[in-house]
From TrEMBL:
InterPro entries: KR_dom (IPR057326), NAD(P)-bd_dom_sf (IPR036291), Sc_DH/Rdtase_CS (IPR020904), SDR (IPR050259), SDR_fam (IPR002347)
The protein, known as: SDR family oxidoreductase
Superkingdom to which the source organism belongs: Bacteria
Family: Belongs to the short-chain dehydrogenases/reductases (SDR) family.
Domain Ketoreductase: 6-191
Length: 237
């Protein structure tokens, strides 16, 4: 399936997995709007992406926690390019602490970004995706099926996201919209304010997730991989 001339939105696309996805899409001839919480971050990332193909990236300020903010970004994308084919709901945060140290503020931000943010993203894009019979992809985590200590907020948000996405797939499949959730394990990003070093070379790289997204949108229309688990091939022993 040709992706030339198609239009994508990647939330949280200024760094990490989102940026890796945007790179892969642009290499496939897809024009990409990336969002970030600040216009400066979005513009800097878009400028770097445009070095791959000039005019293929725009940066938009949006906070997925706020439906109106997300809708404004989508409206600007539609004014710019007139259609929307692919949405990758990637924006996410990670706060990890034992329950007695997990504050209401950290809990709320985790749920609001990782789960409610995806709700806001589909609500703001469902009409243009219906018009193009497009694709909605969420970036969940293996933490959506595997619990761990200090993960009350993160586990809750990702388990919720996996369930949300699979139910969404059933809701939207009759309308011709494909829905998939990708569940990565350890990815070499600055997620959780950690610095990426050479010691992270064994991990999944952001461009690897980008490759998966590129492969998904090229699948025959008759086929839908609805949930994909991704793990490092050779983790440390």
């Amino acid at each position: 399936m040709s992706t030339i001339g198609r239009i994508a939105l990647v939330t949280g696309g200024s760094k990490g997995i989102g940026y890796g996805i945007a790179e892969s899409l642009i290499k496939d001839g897809v024009k990409v709007a990336i969002t970030a919480r600040t216009q400066k971050s979005a513009d800097l990332a878009a400028a770097a992406l445009n070095k791959l193909r000039e005019g293929y990236a725009i940066g938009l300020e949006a906070d997925v926690r706020n439906l109106e903010s997300q809708q404004r970004a989508v409206d600007l994308l539609l004014v710019k390019w007139g259609r929307l084919d692919y949405v990758i709901a990637n924006a996410g945060v990670g706060h990890f602490a034992p329950i007695h140290e997990m504050t209401p503020e950290l809990w709320n931000e985790t749920i609001d970004v990782n789960l409610t943010g995806v709700f806001n993203t589909i609500k703001s894009t469902i009409e243009p995706l219906t018009e193009t019979q497009g694709y909605f992809i969420t970036i969940a985590s293996l933490a959506g099926t595997n619990f761990f200590a200090n993960g009350t907020a993160y586990n809750a948000s990702k388990w919720g996201l996996v369930g949300f996405t699979q139910a969404l797939m059933l809701d939207l499949r009759p309308q011709g919209i494909k829905v998939t959730t990708i569940m990565p394990g350890s990815v070499a990003t600055g997620f959780g304010e950690r610095e990426v070093t050479e010691k992270d070379a064994w991990k999944i790289q952001p461009e690897d997730i980008g490759q998966i997204v590129s492969d998904l949108i090229k699948m025959p229309a008759r086929t839908l991989p609805s949930k994909i688990e991704v793990r490092p091939a050779n983790p440390p022993k």
